[in-house]
Amino acid sequence: MPEHKIKDARLWELAFHRLTALDKTWNGAEALRLRQWMLDSGSERLARLGGLIQSEMTRERLWHVLVPVERECARLKPTDVTILDSDLPDRAAAPSLAVSVVVDSLRSAMNVGGIFRTAECFGLKEVVLTGYTPDPDAAAALGTEQLVPRRRFDRALEAADDFKQNGIVCIALETVAGAVTPEGFDWTAPCALFLGSERFGLSAEVVAACDVAMAIPMFGRKNSLNVVSALAAVAYQARRGAAR
Length: 244
Description:
Structural class: alpha/beta
Radius of gyration: 23 Å
Strand order of the largest sheet: 3-2-1-5-4-6
Largest sheet: 6 strands, parallel
Order of helices and strands: HHHHHEHEHEHEEHEH
Number of strands: 6
CATH architecture of the largest domain: 3-Layer(aba) Sandwich
Mean pLDDT: 88
CATH topology of the largest domain: Alpha/beta knot
Shape: elongated
């Protein structure tokens, strides 16, 4: 990470810590000192927020300053990918696994970011976005959105057709009758794993278009996992199965 970005991150982090301390134990004199420090910080945005601080203000008013500072800290924070690239430049990644992940009409950019992070951690081939799935949230992806290849199709059925034309097996991760388990699948051949939306899962049309339906065995009363957790469980088994 460039030196000026590290300096900016530290400046905003210090502002956040001072604002948090002020929020816990209000002190009018300290509020004015913090206001002046933010005005003199050299950051136009930080100075603008500092100008909102008064010696007497409600806690809710202070949060109008604290929350934007916290968000900026999260945006500027070096990711674990940045740290690894800096501290472990010779770290060799494992060979990529020939598993594509297709996410159909997810609502949450945070979940999409988690999928990119999971795909990178387990060395999956790519992430394919379909339907109204948004681009990944950078805070959740932690830099992995720059490392994992991505493609986009308008509809999941179009993605399934594309994979099938290239001889790639399509797997629908869905709790339907007759579904195989991740442990019982042959992960040595290229495949595409289809994940559905948080609320509705995969449509019956997409499940029917896939070659195989797969379900993670459940042992509690709830029969489904968060989509990112589900991918992690399957990706872990895929990596183990491919290594056999």
